[in-house]
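Sequence, please.
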């Protein structure tokens, strides 16, 4: 990992912790605010610990992009949880022979960047 990449990752980590200090739940309830802050902290710690040994620059860049997207979406919609995607099961291609593998491949590529690591952790 280069020094610039390391600084960018550490900057994102600090940004997340600063975000939790001023986070307010959209409902205005104090218990919801506490739960959401705790979720943000746990999610950040888990994902950063999981990815701390990455050495491939492309994977690191994908993780940085995912983190940035999740921060921006969380701030925009005022919810810390990832927004779900709705794809109908087996709705991208018809099932004939090799099409099943292409169906799985298309579903993998259709997943938004902010949900790449969510299924692995949750």
């Amino acid at each position: 990992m280069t020094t610039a990449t390391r600084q960018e990752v550490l900057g994102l980590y600090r940004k997340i912790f600063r975000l939790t200090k001023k986070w307010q739940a959209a409902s205005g309830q104090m218990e919801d605010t506490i739960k959401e802050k705790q979720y943000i902290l746990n999610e950040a710690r888990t994902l950063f610990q999981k990815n701390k040994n990455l050495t491939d620059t492309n994977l690191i860049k994908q993780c940085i992009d995912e983190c940035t997207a999740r921060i921006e979406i969380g701030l925009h919609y005022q919810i810390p949880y990832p927004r779900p995607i709705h794809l109908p099961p087996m709705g991208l291609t018809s099932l004939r022979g090799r099409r099943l593998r292409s169906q799985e491949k298309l579903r993998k590529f259709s997943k938004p960047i902010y949900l790449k690591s969510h299924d692995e952790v949750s």
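Residues 12 and 18 are 10 Å apart (CA to CA).
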